Amino acid sequence: MELGSTTAIRAQLCRQKPAVNFNLMTNKIKELRGRHNLTQEELAQKVGVRRETILFLEAGKYNPSLKLAHDVAVALGTTIDELFRF
User: Fold this and answer.
1) Which of 11, 22, 30, 71 has its CA 20 to 30 A from that of 47?
2) Residues 20-72 pLDDT 10s
């Protein structure tokens, strides 16, 4: 294989989006929070974090510690397994 063609193939591969979704965890925080008529601020107060943390959790942009996942699940009346999907 020629060096030029190998370089072209690598360049093409680098421009492509990855085929794998690395954000494999989803959650039902927003759905369950709505069922309990809780605002992000109210849920945040119940579990001892800032409202922004709840926002990032709901958006899937933050992976919680085991303690936080447990506290959120308890506050929403569910289990960690039901709240977070892997």
Assistant:
1) 22
2) 555 578 999 999 999 999 999 999 999 999 999 999 999 999 999 999 999 99
Q: How far apart are CA 55 and CA 15, in angstroms?
A: 31
Q: Which two tokens stand for residue 61?
A: 């942009």
Q: For 13, how many CA atoms within 13 A lie in the half-sphere containing its CB?
A: 6
Global pTM?
0.73
What type of residue is 11?
A: A
Number of domains into which the chain is organized:
1
Distances (CA, A) of 72 to 7, 14, 30, 59, 83: 49, 39, 11, 15, 9
Range of the domain at 69: 24-85
| CA 55 – CA 43 distance, rounded (Å) | 10
- What angle is formed at CA 42 by the lines to CA 39 and CA 47, rounded to 5 degrees? 125
